[in-house]
Design goal:
The chain is an alpha/beta fold and 487 residues long. It contains 13 helices and 23 strands. A five-stranded parallel sheet has the order 3-2-1-7-21, with helices on one face. Strand 16 and strand 17 form a beta hairpin. The longest helix has 21 residues. The protein is globular, with a radius of gyration of 23 Å. The mean pLDDT is 94.
């Protein structure tokens, strides 16, 4: 296979926003030797899976969409989930991706041998490619804590990302475990329906006002007639969010202002000092994910809602017992407990050229070269890989930069007649050292513990700089950071 100069065969794992973007840009570049493997029967990823009441994006719609495929018809500044799902489906259809999509095909193993990748799906069938792109994202598998006695619970329980729509909540006694991003959206939606709602909070979160608005038909019509208006609107949103980055630096003026704004929002909406104390974090805003909501605090003050801050001790057949010994009778439990970051290797075994698996490589720490490639794993790239998440802007900006970078690597393989590109270990270590040196100045490396960090407190999920810097650094592959795999 070496030095053929042929267009590489590309396999993309996942048909969410990242996988769709990769497929579209390959097609636009004239590279049509690719397949997109999707375990479900529809595109959409996160927005296909998350259908809980009130689900919506917390990034403005016009920025949470591709720069090359503007949508003038977003209904609101913060679009509801089903609208983003429709956008995914429409864009995939517009760019003709369905001839490349392999629905109902879950890849469970990928091995690099004899100069190419061999993939195996759940049926045992094999597929082959030269370049493997994981578009499975960093938040892929729902996390449900291993609570004692859960197996004895006689009611219905499910994760917010696997919402049970056949189970009506009207008149029920419900517990929501968790009080972060998903919970603050679904709790206000279900509270008016249920008889009693218990919200179990492990740690409080900083919440800012949700400054939402509906786009009128007149505004949408102007965006349709004059696309430059929609593009200008998108750029305005981008710069407003990008300018927030200093708020995530330790001791900065904007960090102090952010805290004052969050504290004022809490004080304005929660008059009871005892409840307000329970809802006040002891860490700076942004150290954990900064949330937006106008109705979560008011919902907690409804007569049929109770905020529980005592830890869960165990489950029983009819309910939940907290650490203070109190039993709360419930018939439905919703786990709004987030996801397990970068755990796709638990359902997908990726084996590099030396026989080492990605899980083994990441056993001590999770890292990647330029957030998307790994030494020992030739022609393997991860969209939204380690340290490419954001606290202040849209990950779509990051995805598009990564897709351009991967395309640059594929062009290099073809034009330079290379068999494979694999990042050099020394270049990867240098990148990782610089990245975590920069991370030290951020509040994410502060004194709070969050899912951004591993067990040693090392932040392996977020990018420690601006998106402008990321786009500049990822504008093209630096091939001297890679080596060619000899055949």
């Amino acid at each position: 296979m070496k030095h053929t100069g042929k267009t590489p065969r590309v396999a993309i794992l996942g048909a969410g926003l990242s996988g769709i973007c990769m497929g579209i840009q390959l097609s636009r570049a004239g590279i049509r030797s690719f397949e997109i493997f999707e375990k479900a029967e529809r595109v959409g990823g996160t927005w296909r899976d998350n259908t809980y009441p009130g689900v919506a994006c917390d990034i403005p719609s016009h920025l949470y969409s591709y720069s090359f495929e503007l949508n003038p018809d977003w209904s609101r500044l913060f679009a509801p989930g089903e609208e983003i799902q429709r956008y995914c489906e429409r864009v995939a259809a517009k760019y003709g991706l369905h001839e490349y999509l392999r629905f109902g095909c879950e890849i469970v193993a990928a091995d690099f041998t004899d100069g190419h990748w061999t993939l195996r799906d759940t049926s045992g069938a094999t597929h082959h490619c030269d370049v493997l792109v994981s578009a499975m994202g960093g938040l892929h598998r729902p996390h449900v804590p291993d609570f004692p006695g859960l197996e004895s619970f006689e009611g219905v329980h499910f994760h917010s990302a696997r919402w049970n729509h056949s189970h009506a909540l009207a008149g029920r006694r419900v517990a929501v475990i968790g009080s972060a991003a998903s919970a603050i959206q679904l709790v206000p939606e279900i509270a008016p329906q249920v008889e009693q709602l218990y919200v179990f909070q492990r740690t409080p979160n900083w919440i800012t006002p949700r400054i939402d608005q509906e786009y009128s038909e007149a505004v949408r019509a102007r965006f349709r007639r004059h696309p430059w208006r929609a593009r200008l609107h998108r750029w305005l949103i981008y710069w407003l969010l990008e300018m927030r980055f200093p708020a995530f630096l330790q001791g900065s003026f904007m960090s102090r202002m952010s805290r004052r704004m969050c504290a004022r929002h809490l004080e304005d909406q929660v008059r009871d000092p005892e409840l307000r104390s329970k809802l006040t974090p002891d860490y700076p805003p942004g150290c954990k994910r900064l949330l937006i909501s106008n109705d979560f605090y008011p919902t907690l003050q409804r007569e049929n809602v109770e905020l529980v801050t005592d830890p869960i001790h165990h489950f029983e057949a009819k309910g939940i017992v907290s650490a203070d010994g109190r039993m709360r009778d419930v018939d439905t439990v919703v786990f709004a407990t987030g996801f397990e970051p970068f755990n796709f290797h638990t359902s997908l075994t990726v084996t590099g050229s030396g026989g080492l698996t990605l899980e083994e490589l990441w056993r001590e720490r999770i890292y990647a070269h330029r957030t998307l490639a790994v030494p020992g794993f030739p022609n393997f790239f991860m969209l939204l890989g380690p340290n490419s998440g954001l606290g202040h802007n849209s990950v779509i900006v990051m995805v598009e930069a990564q897709v351009r970078y991967v395309l640059g690597c594929i062009h290099a393989l073809r034009e330079r007649r290379l068999e494979a590109l694999v990042p050099r270990a020394d270049a990867t270590l240098a990148f990782d050292a610089k990245l975590h040196g920069d991370m030290e100045r951020t509040i994410w490396q502060g004194n709070c513990h969050s899912w951004y960090q591993d067990d040693q407190g090392r932040v392996y999920t977020l990018w420690p700089g601006t998106t402008l810097r990321y786009m500049w650094e990822m504008r093209r592959p630096k091939l001297d950071e890679y080596e060619e795999l000899s055949g």
